[in-house]
Amino acid sequence: MKNTSNHQHKGLEKPQIAGTVEMNSVKFAYPSRPTEEVLKNINLKLKSGETVAFVGASGAGKSTIVSLMQQFYAPSDGSITLDGVPIQDIEREYFHTKVSMVAQEPILYDCSIRENILYGCDWATEEDMKTAAEMANAHDFIKQLDKGYETKCGERGAKLSGGQKQRIAIARALVRRPTVLILDEATSSLDSHSENAIQETLRRIAGKITVIVIAHRLSTIRHADRIYVIDNGSIVQTGTHTELLKDVDGPYFCLVSKQNSI
Prior knowledge:
By secondary structure, the chain is an alpha/beta fold. It contains nine helices and ten strands. The strands form two sheets. Strands 6-7-8-3-9-10 form a six-stranded mixed beta sheet, sandwiched between helices. Helix 4 crosses helix 6. The termini are far apart.
């Protein structure tokens, strides 16, 4: 990885983080295929509090970008910073309290909703839990359950719907008070009612933290502050939903047309 830091000690810093993410001239090839570049000169800046979406065909490089943002891999070249600090210089555990991800298939444990939301957060209070659940648009449906927050989720959340599991997973991420939240294909397997609930969740947290959405269903990201269209490892288009639709020959218009979600 190209070293763009002047710091002598790596992974020791705990800077104040507002949530501005930058990638500068980032290139990447998986270690198993070092000659196949899957990201090609990625340059972007996500401002604190923005909701940003990455869209594109399967295999375009969307998930690879956020994998690098989370330090699952290091770039082959270029730099990634969080509020100007190279991410590899930030103390790792601290970093992962500030950058949280909710996967397409969130893992819930066979215990209560309360225990699932507070998992790994011994310091969190009852108020912290309920605030996170309200932001995640989960509090109302939880209170309607017979046992409320004491309701058992079942193995891998089997007793809950897909939308309910996603919102509990988002609440679990939010209770850690991250400054960056990544949602990886969070609505791709949900019905329209659950998808609408997740969209309401995004509206509630908009502006409070930086939200990065990897979107398959383009209807979910219409209100994003900025949309990056990724193709073959490169950013090929950037703008809002409305701006991108004006280019009827562009890749975004093509993607939206295929989903009939204009």
